[in-house]
């Protein structure tokens, strides 16, 4: 069950990140590197985490013209990422070329192909913000499902979406399409800046493939213990 748990290393530097990896590598399935850590330490942080035995999810949400994203996808693939993200808002062609580039580079170097995952609507965005600030006059869930179907058609392995959209994506895209779910908060943890959330147990019951959890683990007095509690919730949901 621990393979379903991805820890978000939303910390400012290499030392803090590797300390967490050392504590958690036997408790979780992978570690997510976002913009803060990647831009602070550079691409070598991927290798540093891998050297300690951690799988790496590179979450930089690539969103550019298709050729630029394709070339970047090749680089991330060559670095041995377990998973990386592009933004669904970049459109079908961008997503398709990213997936193709990852497959080609993995085959060229004889390495495992990373999962290519499309980010849909960030979990920090409420329905009000979606409509009034982003100017999209539809329900978030409808947009998420639309982008998920487009990502699947483009050949991607899955999407990132909030727990609240899980059952709708599962119905639209089937059981083999991966859904990576941030916005997961155990009942004992603070909500922080997330809007559309569920507990780990609820998220797995609703169809999540992977759970991304950051602060409830990384700021806990005993991070390994916090990770184990979440894995126990996952196991309880799987056993239902």
Spans of at least 5 consecutive residues with low confidence? none
Q: What topology, given as strand order, has the largest sheet?
A: 1-2-3-4-5-6-7-8
- What is the beta-strand fraction? 15-25%
Chain-averaged pLDDT: 93
Q: Rounded to an integer, what's the Rg over CA atoms? A: 17 Å
> Between the first and last Cα atoms, what is the distance in angstroms?
14 Å
The number of helical runs is 11
Quick overview of this protein structure:
It is built from 11 helices and 8 strands. It is of the alpha/beta class.
Can you characterise this structure?
With 240 residues, the chain is α/β, with parallel strands linked by helices. The chain has an eight-stranded parallel barrel with strand order 1-2-3-4-5-6-7-8, surrounded by seven helices. Strand 6, helix 8 and strand 7 form a beta-alpha-beta unit. Helix 4 packs parallel to helix 5 and helix 7 runs parallel beside helix 8.
Question: Topology of this protein?
Answer:
Layout: E1 5-8, H1 14-24, E2 30-33, H2 35-41, H3 44-51, E3 56-62, H4 66-78, E4 83-87, H5 92-109, E5 115-119, H6 127-132, H7 140-153, E6 158-160, H8 166-173, E7 178-181, H9 200-205, E8 210-213, H10 215-218, H11 223-238
Helix pairs in contact: 4-5, 7-8
